Amino acid sequence: MIFLNMNKIGEHIIQEQNSDNSITFLAAQREIYKKGKKIYIFQVVIAVPIPILISLISPFIKNDEYNVLWLLALYTILATFIELFCEGKTSKLKNLAASIQEKFDTNVLYINWNKMLIPQKPDHELIFRYYNKYIKRNTLDDLYGWYSNEILAVDTNIATLLCQRTSCNYDFALRERYSKNMLLLACFTFLFLFILAGHFEITISQFILNVLLPLLPVLVLVSKQISSNKEAIENLKELKELIEDKLAIVKIGDAIDNHLLRQIQDKIYLHRINSPLLPECLYNMMRRESEGAMNFSIEQKINELKNDHS
Q: What is the DSSP letter of 141?
């Protein structure tokens, strides 16, 4: 990529992120992620409320216990296959959304496209189709100002590194909160059912057959979510450390090797396609809560780069 002006990258980022093309990319990827999250919600409904409901009513069905057990076994098998189908579908949607997000980042942050990592850029017609779906139900207001305006003060491609830092820090905070909530929900659900079983004096064999068996899809889903999210957090920690180590040895006017920026972007892309989707409500809530903190963090980091190495 040929840079038109290496001394105005911060200004370029702020201008380009609000261009029509960039907003189209952001709207399209948000719509695709929303579609993936809807499939995930369906997966959760299949795996969580229905098994809990079966667990609650099964102790009261004493005359037809044999048929109930067969129903539980059949449901468990069916739910497992549905989960596998949903996972395959969401994986494809994540890959598509991440490739569109990569197109946004490469255009805005002055980074080369990595053909070895993503051989084909996302189709323009497909992007526009999802953009149209997005604007039918949403406004574009939340998509402007994706990266902090504090970046304007940075002329070199340190601005790019700071934006990559923002992406990592923001997602790290989201996933830490999500992991804690998932673990609390799993513990609370199991404890509630255990207390309920004790109240109705359910035997151990009945508890295993009538409670644990229908909860198998729940346990599988929660286990996968916690495990994959923990792995995503560890990857983000490594990325954060890599970025902070680099920022610790540069000055505000220095230029960073573009190859390093591309390597960091590769890790960000791989993180996006391999990490579990987060609920939309949590994402929206955290974005509003974190926006001010992220802007303050960028401002403080820029001041450090100006003062610590002067």
A: G
Task: Show me where the domains of the chain are located.
Answer: 9-307
Please state, in angstroms and rounded to a whole number, the distance separating the CA atoms of residues 119 and 113. Answer: 9
Q: Which tens digits make up the pLDDT trace of 3-26?
A: 445 578 999 999 999 999 999 999
From the CB of residue 281, how many other CB atoms can be counted at a distance below 10 Å?
9
- Note the pTM of the prediction, 2 decimals: 0.81
Separation CA 130–CA 304 (nearest Å): 41
CA-based R_g, the chain, Å: 24
Contact 122, 99 (CB under 8 A): yes
Average pLDDT value for residue range 201-213: 68
Q: Check: CB of residue 230 under 8 Å from CB of residue 70.
A: no
CA 154 to centroid of chain Cα atoms: 28
Tell me if residue 201 falls in helix, strand or coil: coil
Backbone angles phi, psi at 2, to 5 degrees: -95, 120
- Cβ atoms of 147 and 297 closer than 8 Å: no
Instruction: Please report, for residues 33, 63, 203, 206, the alpha-carbon distance to residue 209 in angstroms, rounded to integers and kept in the order given.
Output: 37, 16, 10, 5
The 10s digit of each residue's pLDDT in 101-126 is 999 999 999 999 999 999 999 999 99
CB 148 within 8 A of CB 297: no
